[in-house]
Amino acid sequence: MSPKSDIAALYAQHQDILQQRTAEALQRGGFEHLVVPSGTLHYQVFDDRDYPYAVNPQFKAWVPLTRNPGSWLVATPGQRPKMIYLQPFDYWHAVPEAPNGYWTEHFDIVVIRTPEEAQQHLPRDPARCAILGEPQGTLGAFAPNNPPAVIAYLEYQRAYKTAYEVAMMREASRIGARAHRAAERAFRAGASEFGIHLVYCQAALQDANDLPYNNIVALNEHGAVLHYTDRDRLPPKDSRSFLIDAGASFHGYACDITRTYARDAAGEFQALVDAVDGAQQAMCAQVRAGFDYRQLHLDAHLALARILNDFRLINVSAEVAVETGVSGAFFPHGIGHGIGLQVHDVAGFAQSDRGGTIPKPPGHPYLRLTRTLEAGMAVTIEPGLYFIDMLLEELKDKGLGPSVNWERVAAFKPFGGIRIEDDVVCTDGDPLNLTREQFAALG
Ligand code: GLY
Ligand code: MN
Ligand code: MN
User: Fold this and answer.
1) What pTM does this model have?
2) Of 250, 268, 306, 356, which one's alpha carbon is 20 to 30 angstroms from that of 320?
3) Last residue in a domain, options 103, 134, 157
4) 207 is annotated as contributing to ligand binding
5) Residues 8-65: pLDDT tens digits?
């Protein structure tokens, strides 16, 4: 990572941008203050056991604090923002340390000892506040009102990452790439899915609740389950293939990385992985300002259908496979999504910062991003090919059975599936692939 002074300078610039965005958002909503609670703990029903705390993303957009329930941010245009920082007296739990780090000099900080104390430091009139948070975050008269005009503006603009945010995502990617390497080694050593997951967490120095999403660690046929999170405790007799979709967090920012490996470097599954990898890199090169992400998704179908055809998995041309929906049975998810503070970042369909929706292409219900790419946007590019019984059977039901080479499908089925996923930042020039950059740095 850059030296501390660089991060401090990047953060200062990030803060300026947040202030500008906040002023505009408040003006649009007719409010004077932005008030953002960090969030509260949630409890399991009929139990005193809490769920893992998840910070309000609108809060961590301002500060690298992800473990501070009960704190509040107040931003008023023309004034230094205020951080109402809860540091309870509590001998049952570890309490947050005193505020420290590069963000503190930009805030007026008030340390409180109980959640209720926050109220006396909030603006006088709640009616003048845009309060962004969860319903249970109500404190006295301060009930989150989540004004749509304010949220639409902030979330739309959040797609354009500041240089600080790209630096945070680069660091998350560095951690993720390192952990992926460790996981690959564990796979090659014959570890179980559960064992590989533990190796991953150890290498990332992140517990499951620190990770930006639930790790997908899938051996063999499990690679065909898109969100497989079961993790067998014992290794299979024969580990043929390994699909790992696992991320890492840094100061509230996510990376989202998928790799697929074959045990047999000379086998056909490895060749299929290589083909998807090559196509994926060509897709990443399309992450350019002005390019419609929907088109990227549609082009991906054609590219993947060409691979299906090259590997004789289908009996029809790539074009016919796309037109008839055969490609969709092998690639049944979107090409990717925005990423940043949330692994599936917000406002993927937003038409403008005043609202509106850009529709998904007909027949592609799982695409999560329909915006045109612009400099600063960070997206994932994650094509895949899977051998999913349910979807292949549906093709038969639709009379499309003859389009598929079932013998070849049967040969590949024991390997489950393939996904390759990178996080790519759109710039004014060449795309910045944070994932490849960090794998390359590992040598
Ligand atoms: N790991 C979740 C996703 O790739 O979208
Ligand atoms: Mn993803
Ligand atoms: Mn992923």
Assistant:
1) 0.97
2) 268
3) 157
4) no
5) 999 999 999 999 999 999 999 999 999 999 999 999 999 999 999 999 999 999 999 9
